[in-house]
Amino acid sequence: MLHVVGLGCARGGAAVLSNVSFDLVAGQALVLRGPNGIGKTTLLRTLAGLQPPITGDVVMPEETAAYASHADGIKTALTVTENLAFWAEVYGMPLDLAVLDRFDLAGLRNRQGGTLSAGQKRRLGLARLAVIGRKILFLDEPTVSLDTGSVAMFARWLQGDHLAQGGIAVIATHIDLGLDAPVLDLTPFQSAPGTGGGTDEAFL
Ligand SMILES: Nc1ncnc2c1ncn2[C@@H]1O[C@H](COP(=O)(O)OP(=O)(O)OP(=O)(O)O)[C@@H](O)[C@H]1O
Q1: Cα(102) to centroid of ligand 1, in Å?
Q2: Is residue 168 helix, strand or coil?
């Protein structure tokens, strides 16, 4: 369902990673590792189609992927429930309010997004992934700001719901989520210094 072959990607006009290849089928996840600056965010954005690759291909069914960045994408003036309803509507999905319990948001359902703590905002941002119905998730440090219990809750949703229902996830994370997933260390794929790259102005 996700076929990545010979992918090269750039940031700031310079090649960052070269020749990354992997395949994932329904129910599989892949954890991206590597030191700060190696190119995890750049790779995720390229996989998600937010910037063009300099080489290679990303093959997946159309309209099946979503990218979650460090930002939570929360509408500050809307309540927690309204935020989820908004995202469900944008993606043409019905809103199942069970998601509130799944992400420990039931007690906050009528709170405005802007009044949430950093960790609560992150839980809402992740709950958004559960309502949009996208099968392929590209997740950039999804657990930033989360306490230990919330990390475990998110990992349970990812493994027990998303992947169990045939989803796919590619996750850049520095912490162990306890997922049953292989790890891809990006260090060997680092481009040689000074290698030029394609355009990624939208990302600067
Ligand atoms: N605006 C920019 N112009 C030029 N180079 C940039 C720009 N932003 C980032 N870079 C460089 O691109 C490279 C890849 O950055 P990227 O954010 O993809 O790495 P990362 O592995 O996600 O890092 P981290 O673990 O710190 O989040 C880094 O060397 C970084 O310094």
Answers
A1: 33
A2: strand
